[in-house]
Amino acid sequence: MILVMPMNRLGxxxxxxxxxxxxxxxxENPTHLVFGAGTLSRxxxxxxxxxxxxxxxxxxxxxxxxxTYERAVSSLNASGVTVVECSGVEPNPRISSVIRGAKIxxxxxxxxxxxxxxxxxxxxxxxxxxxxxxxxxxxxxIAHGQDNRRLPTSALPIITIPTLAATxxxxxxxxxxxxxxxxxxxxxxxxxxxxxxxxxxxxLTLSVPQDQTAFGICxxxxxxxxxxxxxxxxxxxxxxxxxxxxxxAMEWGPKAIxxxxxxxxxxxxxxxSVVALNGWVQIGTAAAYPVxxxxxxxxxxxxxxxxxxxxxxxxxxxxxxxxxxxxxxxQFAQRIFGLSLQHxxxxxxxxxxxxxxxxxxxxxxCPTRLSQLEIGDALLNRYAQDIVKIIHDEExxxxxxPPMHEADIVKVLRSAL
Amino acid sequence: MILVMPMNRLGxxxxxxxxxxxxxxxxENPTHLVFGAGTLSRxxxxxxxxxxxxxxxxxxxxxxxxxTYERAVSSLNASGVTVVECSGVEPNPRISSVIRGAKIxxxxxxxxxxxxxxxxxxxxxxxxxxxxxxxxxxxxxIAHGQDNRRLPTSALPIITIPTLAATxxxxxxxxxxxxxxxxxxxxxxxxxxxxxxxxxxxxLTLSVPQDQTAFGICxxxxxxxxxxxxxxxxxxxxxxxxxxxxxxAMEWGPKAIxxxxxxxxxxxxxxxSVVALNGWVQIGTAAAYPVxxxxxxxxxxxxxxxxxxxxxxxxxxxxxxxxxxxxxxxQFAQRIFGLSLQHxxxxxxxxxxxxxxxxxxxxxxCPTRLSQLEIGDALLNRYAQDIVKIIHDEExxxxxxPPMHEADIVKVLRSAL
Lengths: 417, 417
What we know:
Chain A is an alpha/beta fold. Chain A has 15 helices and nine strands. In chain A, a hairpin with a 4-residue loop joins strand 7 (174-179) and strand 8 (184-189).
């Protein structure tokens, strides 16, 4: 599978701009957030403000087994909203599923689209909502560097109801879609894709198994470490916000893993996951996402969970990146783990902070070595080639701080064997 | 002047609910933020998306003297936007000014309203935009406990351009208005009052004098300490965000005061002031604002700057409140000033943290004693009576943690003499 992430279209900074004081940005997130245990029961009331016939998009598995689907439908029907089902969205949602869902919505005259599930159900629902009235091939709205790309400018009202604490898709305007014919996995970010309402009910995450809970925690933390370590200089308040998300996830994550029925822990973790990618942390950072890029290629080659892959790649990447910019990693060590610094560029403290971060991931049951994912060293060069084929700067490097040559990527992955 | 703050209508928690795990909330902030030095020059481009004839609302003083007004008008005209002037809005904007501005906008057929200035110009502009098509007396939209209150449901598009780092009004849906006939000062919060766009240009704050800069820093810090100390339990991520705003303001504020031309410091302080009251910090806290309530009555009786009054009241209030809840103030001492705690309820550390906070306010030139504001002890009982007359719980106490009897208010103010 080839992944194309058009990060240059998202305005990531070039290395020569990272040292500049920046603090120039635009921001908008119009999603209305409804957060709290039990809010699933408000689905009908909320959706009925936007339409009378809803396309309900799900993966179709766990939400049906655990009764969430039935509860959502009951709530909708009780508020006079007719439900049209679109189940079976894949873990990596395919453009064919998007087209299928959009066709159902069009034929049935749906006037609102609900994504109920993890990131895949929500992402598919978002793009279906835009595809309903999109002229031509919906794949053209996906940002994969093609010349005929046309971003969507309108969509049916979108409602998101996450059942996992991980993705952040419930409160942002992005979606990741795979074209199974060309094996390209890419994404779209557009204003019309922001959900009108995100109904975030931590009760829905009570049934998430320990390993997926841990992977979600790693995922959400990685969302903020990417911008923390790969963003522009001069965003001190965003640093604090990022640290706040990490500290909160590290405090409450283990409680959610130790006792899946701990509703308060589930709520705190889910709230952290919403904030980790709704833009509040990333604002003004113009960040690159090298850890995600590396992980995406790993999970394209191997059947591994996204959060598990991140858990292996992130500490290894951090050790590499800390050599170029020890002060930032020393700050991380100090503020996250309370380590004392001998001086602002204290490399030992920086490394100790990364060790502690890795130990945390290990402690919650996340893998930290490729061998735990049954990935060996046979394809390291291939992964690196794939990654820079997908995204690279003018010098052929993976964007980030620092930008990475293929050899750097191989080195990082080798250190994680 | 009588101040009425309808906090019970905003859903502040009753004392018996503070200990409950909460994490139930709704949130929405649709304002599009354009942040950065030089963004004033984009005013015309941005406003022209919303209208062709703009009511430009200002205090009329400093923005005309320092050229900001002229630059805004030039930008607007260059984009084909005609400007209708509404200058002379008072520091505490009056309902008569709102009515005057709305009349101008109606007569001139303005289709967009711009607030250029401090909180007063922006607040007045917001309410004018709602008053243009409001049936009947615009005062009825202001929330002051009157039975005939009718919140505004629509408004002309609002654009805010702050020239001070303090209020946060540029990116929220609130406005404070005074009825000069009845001497009631109250506020309105409504969805239609969120600005479409906030143009936040830190260059506009370069000319703000040292004392006003310091008062603004105290104001923004107090916005977050109120929810930090008077909000619901169980919002750990909001704690971190609040601490992030405070730490950022304490790091960059003194630099902005030491060198008013330090654009980076101005940018960081202004960004902190936006975030301090755009809802990201307060979300889920359902906070009361006792320090603001006390200060409002002081500034109703005496001609003092809002931020200066807060600077006196806040540390004195903190010493009082810390007795009832030392753990929270110990956390503040630990996380803001790095103090070590002997135990989670360490009252000594809590008090030392408050001392250090007061010393910080003193160091940036803010008053910390009532005597510095030339306020004596003659009217202490009167202030307390006025405060609880304005807002009180079922037991006649000022809401907060803990709720305050009149005698408590007197005690706090006496300790600040």
